[in-house]
Amino acid sequence: MTEEINYSYDGGLYAEMVQDRTFLSARSDTENWIPVAMGNARGSVTRDMSTGPSAALPASMKITVEQADKANAFGLRNGGWWGVLVKPETTYTGSVWAKADKEGAGAAVKVSLIANDTGKVLASSTLPALTADWKQYNFTMKTGASGEASSANQILVTVDHPGNVWLQVLSVFPPTYKNRANGNRIDLMEKLAAMHPAFLRFPGGNYLEGNTIPDRFDWKRTIGPLVDRPGHASPWRYHSSDGMGLLEFLEWCEDLKMQPVLAVYAGYSLQQQFVKPGPDLDPYVQDALDEIEYVIGDASTKWGAERVKDGHPAPFALNFVEIGNEDQFDRSKSYDGRYAQFYDAIKKKYPALTLIATTPIKGHVMDMIDDHYYKRAEQFFEDAHHYDKIDRNGPKIFVGEWATREGTPTPNMGAALGDAAWMTGMERNSDLILIASYAPLFVNVNPGGMQWQSDLIGYDANSSYGSPSYYAQVMFSNHVGTETVASDLEGAGDRLFYSVTRDRAKGIVYLKIVNASSKAQDLKISLDGAKDVKPTAKLIRMSAATTAATNSITDPKRVVPVESVAKGVSKEFTRTVPGYSIDVLELGVQ
Ligand code: AHR
After folding, report:
1. Ligand 1 in contact with 440 (CB < 6 A)?
2. Nearest CA to ligand 1 atom 7
């Protein structure tokens, strides 16, 4: 499950290197853009509210240069997202909208990557002569072979002659995953790919709703060229560039072969603003229908054609649509009516879609309901059998947000044990729980980067790491059976959890054992539902001496799964599992 929180996209997955590329904070006293005068250069910068390149971005950064020449340039520097990672022999791709006060006056606008400590120019590009009209300039900057990867760098934009220059949407990208333009960070995408996720729930979470109705995820303002995206305030207390817009979410799904689970805004925002069911809600329902059409419509439809124009001719596959997020918090109790209006309109046009309610509904059919759990490990241990007794005649379950919240900024081994215990319960009940997604995925670990503690994957500008909870996800999601297997386990003391599933086509039984107690436990396991169990199995184990053991940006692999061979397995066998351990056994069967 993903949303813009903890600098998940801006300053995270979305690979843009410039912080505040639309110059929202373009005052001389702000963090992101600092004026730089070299030698005897003189000038000033202001946010010019009277000119911009588009209706979405009607303002711009005005650089007024009073005195400058080739050796004494004036401009601005940007520190990126807690640093600017520059690597040797790498091509950086940039673009900027710009204009000058007279034709040709901006001939020497230069963008450079500069090492903070030495002042060395690592790469640069000089724009062609600017015109007096707004125009987009694309450029590349290539670094040399020497030097090492470092984030102690800045992005510098300079002008070397007197006059006025206006800038907007100054963007610089490193190479991205699958070389997508406007794409994603490679290391983070690789970490996600290793989880083999089946789907992605987006765009929230609270981020879908926004604090107020105008601050919702208004998808139509997140598509098309970047210059047509105004960005918006995220409820997580920072501005979202919306570079990660609806199409980018979908392409992210495509790149990792995930299904989108699309949440549509359903007329409720976090500060208790809601739209009354009935005619007032109609435009929002229409927006959701348009959004679905953008995702799955062909070129003959209005919004399908818009997606084609945006560069993605093929429709995406879509099976699940969620109506809102956590609507139990709407104190007006308007969700029953809002849900019914959305449900009926979407079902009428797209009967094959599974529609998800965010809280129980009175008087209307529910295909599926989204349950959320944020708990301590001990609570998950106690609740691991939660779904064993739930009525099978009700709606199917989507556990759309869940996590053991222990450890900051990322969860520790204790949290991984809580997660794994909970996952055994979800696997056992997978006739009822069709899909489940951990949340939140990401955190930028720099000071001020985190708004929500305990996030699966941590990073800074240089590198990223998976928490023990991340590895628990990798272990479980890479070993998913297609059915549960009759089994029995003797000898289990406190805090011992297990599940047995089988993939018949592959001839594999997956036995997962979670020992969340500090002591080793001797177990007798009977795989009643399996035949001809081969005597050796692949064992993947993650364990630690304490529940506080964890990974971090400086020690990224302290707690990781280790692979070995387990001997002496059969239909009935005994095993000793160490304290604080998660085991996945891959058993060969007929
Ligand atoms: O995952 C963090 C937040 O928790 C989500 O935005 C919200 O849906 C839930 O309350």
Report:
1. yes
2. 205
